[in-house]
Description:
This protein has helices at residues 56-63, 89-94, 111-121, 127-140, 156-168, 186-201, 213-218, 236-241; strands spanning 6-17, 30-41, 45-50, 71-76, 79-80, 96-99, 174-178, 205-209, 222-227, 230-234.
Amino acid sequence: MERNKCVVKLHDVSIYHTDGSSRSPKSDDELVLSEVNLTVNEGEMVYFIGRVGSGKSTLLKTLYAEVQLLEGEGSVVGVDLRKIKRSEIPHLRRRLGIVFQDYQLLDDRNVFYNLYDVMKATGWKNETDIRRRIDEVLTLVGLDNKAYKMPFELSGGEQQRLVIARALLNSPRLLLADEPTGNLDPVTADGIMRLFREITTKGCAIIMSTHNTALIEQYPARTIMFSKGKISEIDLAASFSE
């Protein structure tokens, strides 16, 4: 049976900062975004742009269930965000790739074991399969000769590539990246964007929050603007050409 090509579907969603004690909004919950409608399909690249505090990171957190969805309808890789139980969240995250700006690498172990330990924790058991998959993702991100380097021996760009390799271990249908080039120089950021382009050609969708409109000009894709508690799709490429 052919799987659904849609990896994100949000309909009339409102997102709140909440303490998580209720399945519905309370009077003291802070409304962050309202009237959110968004569909993302396999292999799409989508940018989130907007000022700091406009809700970009909060929406990303909603997609991987760190922020609870209280109003509207939402699904990610086939998982209903309104119905998901706390015990089911790790299973959802194993089906996603998440790239954090601050890397969150394990500084006391090398590149190989940063990936190996994640795979063991997410249910991989066969040593041959584990080593084969690690080789595959390190080759994809251009770190195949760095497997036994410690994180502190890597440049910032190499550390970000390692984070991306980690996110790809379980062959996700969706990669969520929060300001992945924010700490990188322009040349290194360009390399990350080329890598993202390659990843989308393999069918994985990417949602990336960014402040770097120069990257969007160079690598145009769907762009979602966050402003005044709402989101809207804009044609940023057209504004560049004016």
